[in-house]
Write a sequence for this structure.
């Protein structure tokens, strides 16, 4: 019996890629392009699953499952690494946006931006945490969804095998089955023509 | 067994269409709700998408914020409705609306019970126009427009539906199969040439 390969390791690696790249400030901006890092995590998980399954072809459903698991792992990594990093670099990020808004020479936009900053700073901690939690839950849902799509795309791109493996193909460690026990099937050996002599005496075979 | 598979496939398909429609509706609803008041500032300039006096002010800003993780939301690269940009850029809107369109034509082109995907060549062909449009614009080889971004995204999204839908159906069937006793007991065995030969003879 051939066991299907475990999806755990591909999911962990794919999730690590998606989670880490989505957490690192500035690098995570690539995600604004259709969640590219998250899609990549799903694709990597599917690719690893295909590589770990030498006998049976990986189905799109298995790729999707590996991708979804990678999304879950990625969301957990984002919670552990991304959220603290975002909090640490918040002031730097706000300073960059302030610089950008000031460069636009739009007094209305600058005033609006300052108002938003004041609002954010005056926000109670409980409200900040609640908003952070809601954002994280939503981001996790997005991560799982896009990673699942990545897993499916990965199978579409990298799985070249179709259907079942060719008959007679046995992976390492699986010996072909022995012939069934019992009397031999077919004409008795005594009626077999001698070697170097055509069957049926060289004539036409008897009609059945 | 076949009826059960067909039922699961139909449910997954219906759920996917509903989710995709909801996703596209959210993109369109954000500018439509903002557009109730023409005095609303541009979201690129201001993050305030709130129509004054409108009770759904949280809904409008929540809608824009919901799509923030998946798109840059640059106003000059977005399609505007009533003077307000959509919640995602033109290319993203093309991809998502194309995906919905692909889902709607999916049952006309293939049976829902199929879990095999079309050849990957079609996916690469569908990806090519969007890739050329993106990298051409990025490198400055040519100036792409909102229309080109929308159309190339639409092609990619429509093709994507034909790959994603079988995957989702197959995944749900796997989950439902493994949760049922029959599915859990099903073992994956290597092919038996003797049994195959016997089957072919019979």
């Amino acid at each position: 019996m051939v066991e299907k390969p475990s999806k755990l390791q591909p999911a962990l690696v794919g999730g690590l890629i998606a989670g880490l790249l989505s957490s690192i400030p500035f690098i995570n901006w690539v995600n604004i392009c259709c969640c590219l890092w998250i899609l990549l995590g799903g694709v990597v998980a599917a690719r690893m699953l295909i590589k770990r399954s030498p006998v049976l072809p990986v189905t799109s459903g298995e790729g999707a499952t590996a991708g979804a698991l990678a999304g879950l792992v990625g969301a957990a990594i984002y919670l552990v690494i991304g959220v603290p990093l975002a909090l640490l670099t918040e002031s730097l990020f706000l300073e960059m946006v302030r610089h950008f808004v000031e460069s636009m020479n739009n007094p209305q936009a600058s005033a609006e931006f300052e108002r938003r900053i004041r609002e954010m700073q005056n926000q109670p901690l409980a409200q900040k945490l609640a908003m952070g939690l809601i954002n994280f839950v939503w981001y996790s849902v997005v991560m799982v969804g896009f990673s699942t799509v990545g897993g499916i795309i990965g199978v579409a791109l990298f799985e070249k095998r179709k259907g079942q493996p060719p008959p007679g193909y046995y992976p390492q460690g699986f010996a072909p089955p022995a012939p069934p026990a019992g009397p031999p099937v077919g004409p008795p050996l005594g009626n077999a023509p001698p070697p170097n002599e055509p069957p049926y005496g060289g004539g036409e075979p008897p009609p059945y | 067994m076949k009826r059960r598979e067909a039922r699961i496939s139909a449910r997954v398909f219906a759920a996917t269409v509903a989710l995709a429609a909801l996703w596209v509706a959210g993109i369109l609803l954000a500018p439509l709700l903002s557009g109730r008041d023409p005095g609303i500032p541009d979201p690129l300039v201001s993050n305030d998408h709130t129509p004054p006096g409108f009770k759904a002010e949280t809904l409008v800003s929540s809608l824009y914020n919901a799509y923030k993780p998946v798109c840059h939301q640059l106003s000059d690269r977005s399609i505007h409705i009533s003077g307000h940009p959509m919640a995602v850029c033109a290319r993203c809107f093309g991809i998502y609306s194309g995906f919905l369109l692909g889902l709607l034509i999916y049952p006309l082109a293939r049976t829902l019970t199929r879990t095999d995907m079309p050849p990957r060549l079609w996916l690469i062909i569908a990806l090519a126009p969007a890739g050329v449009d993106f990298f051409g614009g990025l490198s400055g080889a040519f100036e792409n427009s909102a229309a080109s971004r929308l159309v190339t995204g639409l092609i990619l999204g429509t093709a994507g539906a034909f790959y994603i839908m079988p995957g989702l159906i197959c995944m749900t069937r796997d989950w439902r199969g493994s949760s049922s006793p029959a599915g859990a007991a099903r073992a994956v065995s290597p092919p038996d040439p003797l049994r195959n030969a016997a089957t072919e003879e019979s």
